[in-house]
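Recall that a protein's primary structure is simply its ordered list of amino acids. Everything else, from secondary elements to tertiary packing, is in principle encoded there. The following example makes that idea concrete.
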Amino acid sequence: MTNTVMKINTLNRVLSVICLAVLLLLTGCWDRREINDVAFVLAGGADKEGDLIRISVLIPLTGNMGNTGGGGGSGGQKPFTIKTETGKTVSDAVSKLQYRLPRHLFFGHRRVIIIGEELARTEGIETVIDAITRTPEKRLSTFIAVSEGKAIDLLNANTRIERFSAESIREQLQSETTARINLKEAVCKLITVGEDVFLPYVQKVKTNIKGQGSEDIRSEGFVLFHDGKMTGKLEGASAIGFRLLNQSVRDYDETLHLDGNYLTVTINHAIISIKPIVKNGELSYRIHSKVKASISEDKNQERNYDYSEQRKRIEQSIAQNIVHNINLALKEMQQNNSDAIGFGLKAYLAYPQIWTKTYRKDWDEIFPKIKFEVAAEANLFRLGMSSENLGRKDH
């Protein structure tokens, strides 16, 4: 045997010993958990309770799911359970809750976070968000909203369309009636100078039909914040105006009263321009909205769309309604001192030196007095019919 072969064999033996030593040091997944030792949290809620914070979690019960559709489980039992505990802080309440449960709480699948209205008004949302973002299992894509009343009541809603109330809430928070705000976006708004955070406003609505009683989730409004605390709400027309300003609008319907009758149009597309203007040392904003609309229904069957003047009057009515909604939203934001659109940030981007020197320090006092010039134009691009009105009589 040559010296070269002997050296190779010796090297192989040394490598084998090293590999064996490394394998002995490997102990496998020392911190692993079996799936049946984990409680998956689909939704979380935070409420104010005296001087304490109540934390609630929604956990699915696989044994109660069965094969039934909707929200029913086997034996008529709910396919989920709500566990709740109070504490001096969010983490304190979660720790106490964990001590009571035989399974480890896992928040990596949490889809929605609901904050009770009282907690949002009195203590704000910063402490809750701070505790959540420190958790390694956090999902920045988790939707966050404020509930009417208690968050725990919303989580316990008896929804029939979905198995879990968490799923109904999530679907509402990403629907066409609201603006999608997740944890990441809320954090960015909280730390940005010249902008306040806003969150969707979620409500529980009861359906009182004999034998068909259920509770649905509705999210059509928004909650305004200033310095992390809730200061007001936007509902109805002001909420629509806010969606336009936030440029998160998708198709929605507006019903107008024109020529003594009702006309429903669909706003299919909207472009919003917000321009800050500094003139004679005074800051103001010029807002222009351009929308495309189509006719959904017209109770005036005699209306003749062949006349351009008739279409023009409808477009003017739509534009006036858009201006009205935007002005309502602006008024509510100024009254609640909540710059939820980020007008301060827009002023900084347009006039960085003027903003820093003149407006940034006193923006809280300046914003409620800012003047806005709002204009809109509408284009009726589709009449929604292939020929004349079906109900129109020949003359």
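The longest helix spans residues 308-335. Residues 133 and 140 are 8 Å apart (CA to CA).
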